Amino acid sequence: MNWTIYLAGEIHSGWRTDIIETINQRNMPILCTGPVMDHEASDRCGVAILGDEESPFWVDRKGAGVNSIRTRRLIKQADVVVVKFGGSYKQWNSAFDAGYAAALGKSLITVHPEEFDHALKEVDEAANAVAREPEQVVNILEYVISGKLP
Questions:
Q1: Which domain holds residue 138?
Q2: What is the pLDDT of residues 28-60, one digit of tens each?
Q3: How many structural domains comprise the chain?
């Protein structure tokens, strides 16, 4: 059985690459999906496709609307949603993705440092597991797929 994992969250570090490379090294039956990783393209897609806006609010609104088509579809298709919260930026979109996944009844793994535990307590309560490192995410996936400890 092949699994689909949606990798949501911060885009300013290589955590997705770490997970995907480890999955590939272990030959796990997993397809990883996620948001558009080109930050500029993600921010500007709405106005690039639908026309320019004078107000930054509407630039962001158009982009968010276009991006949500991909996000909603891929989260709905996912067997597991992994949401990474990083320290460089506040990831409001990550919290939204986690809430959306939880509302759909998706299995949810959050990834963040211990210092975020209090701020993310409600998000973590909805999660099936809270990991600190990308390798822990892969170990969880390996266990749930094979039933064997890594």
A1: 3-36+77-146
A2: 999 999 999 998 999 999 999 999 999 999 999
A3: 1
- Is position 44 within any domain? no
Kindly calculate the radius of gyration of the chain based on its CA atoms and give it in whole angstroms. 16
Give the Cα separation of 93 and 61 in Å (integer).
13
For tokens 């990308």, the residue is 134
Which residues lie closer than 8 Å to 118 by C-beta, 6 or more apart? none
Tokens 């460089």 belong to 88
Q: In Å, what is the CA distance from 64 to each residue of 9, 20, 101?
A: 15, 26, 17
Q: How many CA atoms lie within 13 A of 106 on its CB side?
A: 28
Which residue matches tokens 């998706």?
106
**Tokens representing residue 32 in the block:** 């990883």
Residue appearing with tokens 């996944």: 101
User: What are the pLDDT digits (tens) for 68-94?
Assistant: 999 999 999 999 999 999 876 667 889
* Residue 55 within any structural domain of the chain: no
Give the C-alpha separation, 17 to 14, whole Å: 5
Q: Please state whether the predicted TM-score (pTM) of the whole model is above 0.90.
A: yes
Question: Which amino acid, 126?
Answer: A
